[in-house]
Amino acid sequence: MSILDRFLHPPAPHVEPVGTEAAARLAAIHASAFPRPWSTLDFERLLGERSVMADGLFLGRTTKPSGFILSRTVLDEAEIITVAIVPEARGKGQARALLTHHLDALSRRGVARVHLEVEEGNGPAIALYRRAGFRETGRREGYYHKADGTRASALTMALDL
């Protein structure tokens, strides 16, 4: 393949599992998406847990993820812990591919139900989850601390796989 062909036809985005080696990158992506980011050490600890499953979103030829999703499984249920995409890749349908791949992987592991919580003001994330089939199951008042010092409620959602 020529250089021109590689430029005109970049590799399709793909999703693959990530481990502790990606902790610093995931922390940086998380910091770009949330007002109270988790540290590299937080990610190392999570990624080291046997019950945690992590998938990274890889765009183009990069070897570093441009997004990720983490979930924790217990028996036949899972909770999506966090999802984040780098700012320049948001709003382009990448999160849908990441979520779909992750849900398929959870299903293959025997997970029957997936739970999550999302800030009630996060319209794009709520739309993503609803398109995937998640339904609202509850609400946690004042659950999230916002950057301006106020608090926002969380919606709890679930999906039967």
TrEMBL record:
Entries under PROSITE patterns matching the protein: GNAT
Gene3D superfamilies, alphabetized: 3.40.630.30
Alphabetical UniProt keywords: Acyltransferase, Transferase
Pfam families for this protein: Acetyltransf_1 (PF00583)
Group of enzyme by EC: transferase
Domain (N-acetyltransferase) ranges: 13-161
Keyword Metal-binding in record: no
A GO molecular-function descriptor: protein-N-terminal-alanine acetyltransferase activity
Protein name, as recorded: Ribosomal-protein-alanine N-acetyltransferase
